[in-house]
Structure formats: C-alpha cells, structure tokens
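1st attempt posting a full record on here, be nice pls
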Amino acid sequence: MTVRVEVSPEVLRWARTRSGIDDETWASRFKDYDAWLSGDKTPTVKQLQIFATKAHAPFGQLLLDEPPQEEVPIPDFRTVANQPVVQPSADLLEVIYQCQRRQDWYRNNQLILGEDSLRFVGSATTRTPIEAAAAGLRQLVDWTSANRSELRSWDDAVTRLRENAETAGVLVMISGIVGSNTHRKLDPDSFRGFALVDPYASIVFVNGADSKSAQVFTLAHELAHVLLGSSALSDLTGESIRTNDHERWCNRVAAELLVPMGEFRSRFNPSLDLCAQLQALAEAFRVSTQVILGQIREGGWIDWDQYMEELRLERTRVAGLGSMNAGTGGNFYNSKPVQVSKRFARELIASTLESRTAYTEAFRLLDVSKSATFHGLSTQLGVT
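the predicted structure (as tokens):
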C-alpha cells in the first residue's frame, strides 16, 4: 500500500527558499514541486524523503503545519537593503553546525590535555583604539610589512595568515563547499565568514569560494572578532559595516593590520585618479581593491556616500572579470586539512590513534568515510 503525505504549501515554499538552489536546477530536480504546491498531486513518503535529501531539508520539518523558525545560532551581522537577513540557507546552517561540533570536541580535548586558554580571546572591546588592537593582532599573527613583501601572490597571503593564526592557537577553516559535497558550493554573496569564539577553541571560518584577495581580509576581520571575544557571522558589505559598531570596529582593525594607514598615506596620491590606483595598491598590500577603497574612506579622502557608490562600481567591475575563487579541486590530502583546520585535524587524528576518540567520531568530524583516507591524512599531516 502506497502511503501519501499531505504537505503544507507554506512548508514547501520554506524548503524551496531555504535550499538556496537556483531556479533552473530546482525545476529540473523537482518536477512535481508545482503540482504538490497546488495540491494536484500528493507526495508519497518515499518521494518526500527524496525531496528532503535533495533540498537539504530535515524530513521531520516537512511534516509541520507551518514553516519552522530557524535562526543562525550566532550573532548575524549580515544585511540586505539595510535589513537583517531573515532566512538562513541550509548550506550556511550545516557549515556552522559542523564547525560547532568540531569546536566542542577540540575544547574538551584541550581541557583533558590541561592546555591553557588563549589569553588574547576577549582582550579588546570596541573602545580599544584601532591602532592598538591592530598592533596586538599584528604581533599575534606576525604580519609585518617586511613579511608581506615576501609574498608573491594572494594565495601566499592567505596561506601565511592562516598558518600564523593557527600557530597562535586559532583553528582556521577555509572551504568553498558544504562538507565534502562539491555540488554544494557556498555563495560568497550569502556570507564571507564567521567566528566561533571560545577561550580554548576559537574557530575562524572563511568562505573559500570567495576570491583569494577577499579571503585575506575576511580572515583578518574574523580574527578581530576573536579579539573582541564575540562570535559573529559576517558578509562584510558596506551596509552592514556602516550600521553595526562591532563590524565597523573589526573592519577597521583588519584594514589597519593589512593596510597600515601610515604606510598607505605614503603610497596613495589623492591628486591622481582614485580608480587608477586601486589595483596597484591592492597588489602591493595583498588585499582586494574594495579594502583599498575602505582605507581611502577611513583616510577622509571620500565620504560614505561616495564610498558606497565607488564600492558598487568596483564590485561590478570585479564581477565582470570572471571567477577568481579558490575552487574545490587539487590534491585531496592538501585541501582537506585546510577545510577542517590543520591544527584540528592533527589533534583529532592523534587522539584517535591513541584510542581517546572513536574512529566513527573522527570520521564524522573530518567528514571522511574510509580508513585509508583517514590514515592518508595522518601521514600527510605528519602524525604517523
């Protein structure tokens, strides 16, 4: 006997919006959706289970009479048209929940091992002078003008900043996909990154689908949130920065770390065309042209309204250049530790090999399914 399930049209629409799947893909993937929505057809239990899997929606929530109220589990500073983002995507929620599970494990592991807390977590407030906070962060991640001059590319800049942050004790995870699913690419327009702050296990997640130059700044911005001791989800748009004191402070600290105003003043010529200087300055400081625009605004050469207009034009120009994202290819044993944090992976693998953590738990946290993959990562990271 075939069992059919009545599904609320509102819940179906919620699942559609939440999925983040584009219209063309949705139409090809869910051919009966419109018929279910109108009531012309009713899905079977099996069909609804398949729908839930493909739409990245919890099956049980599809049986509700009305859409559930889902909220991002950390402060959400993203804005659209100067308003908070109302509906978080399935991709975003899954990434945050996975990072929270890793954070829980790592925190417990640090306490078991008797490790000290990270003294710099929560060491600043939004009243801390920008220059002082940036100087502290610069020392923490060893980011100096001399070190920056050694970097040949934005990829080198991301790698250096990530590795130095992890050496300081922060778990840095950079990924452009949900888990290991290369078909679920993260949208940089939805979010740039987030910070999960804890004195023993602070995590910074950077959207790896973004350009390398943007990743550098996102990483610095989220590290500033760690200094504040406050978890946050960021999109780093001009609107969210302008209207939120925490985002503005973190942005200014990140900019001062990467593009020190004293050095910037010596390089920027306000008498020349502004746009003509953007790319050269971005390459010199290994940041995006949008960060350079932000420093031009902070230096008082343009006001907020002009900045917002120049930012809009620059985004359009960069979008026209095509994709410059990190991609999801390359050697698995090189990319996976970056996605889950090399520091985290080493600690987890060591704990598992010492029989302090179950293999099933390790596989779940690393998002791998085979013993050979696990041991390959162990060898790659020098644990065995």
